[in-house]
TrEMBL record:
InterPro entries: 4pyrrol_syn_uPrphyn_synt_sf, 4pyrrol_synth_uPrphyn_synth. CDD domains: HemD. GO terms for molecular function: uroporphyrinogen-III synthase activity. GO terms for biological process: tetrapyrrole biosynthetic process. Residues 14-253 form the Tetrapyrrole biosynthesis uroporphyrinogen III synthase domain. This is Uroporphyrinogen-III synthase. SUPFAM superfamilies: HemD-like. It holds the Pfam family HEM4. It comes from Aquabacterium soli.
Amino acid sequence: MKILVTRPEPQSSEWVAQLRALGEPAEALPLIEIGAPLQADAVHAAWAALPGTRLVMFVSPNAALWFARQRPPHLAWPATTLAAAPGPGTANTVRQCLADAGLGDSQLISPSPDSDQFDSEHLWPLLAPLPWDGQRVLIASGGDQGEARGRQWLTQRLQERGAQVSAVLAYQRQAARWTDAQQQLAREARQQPARHVWLLSSSEAIEHLQQAWAGQGGLPGGALALATHPRVAETARAAGFSQVRDTRPTLEAVAHARRTWAAEAA
């Protein structure tokens, strides 16, 4: 049972390398492709406005990576501006990408690595005690067709506390374009669904897979998935995956879930 890692690059290849280091059979098969935003000026303006911004929420590693890449060279991260991340993967990327800009560890807020889940709901208890009335908050996210997608639930909580929340498109998302080798891997997964398990961390990624296989009758019977969030699991079941299991979004948890599943099928 081979793990198909569907995260965008470079996270997909990074996960594959780390899973293989744990002895897991894994291959990169991204379902989302990341690129520069259509309007880089909006990111430049966001950087210029940071002194008046209390918090920047990075929704993913790519949000942090692309926001950092587009920093005007004369601008630094202000000491009064906080950064937030929904989990340790994004938090680590924020540290790596923005330390040179002046962001310190004391300014970064993120759930503990042993948190039950890495999402807005588990980040909010860390943000809720802070005063938000009249404060400006920026959600750095990705999107498609030039429209930024923010974290709606977290946005609502912040607005209820009086914060002024806006979103910026830090990167552009679209369906991944597979190489010849990846197309062959996808064909093998379709022909032998019981020997492949799709590692899913995004509902949008599932939509792209459905679109890619729409002309072939949709997902094959017996398709298997590991979902790193309950909402993603719900989307996977609705899309037609025959079996979907939840797992924490950590390398060790994913490896354990695959081994358990493979042992049961043996």
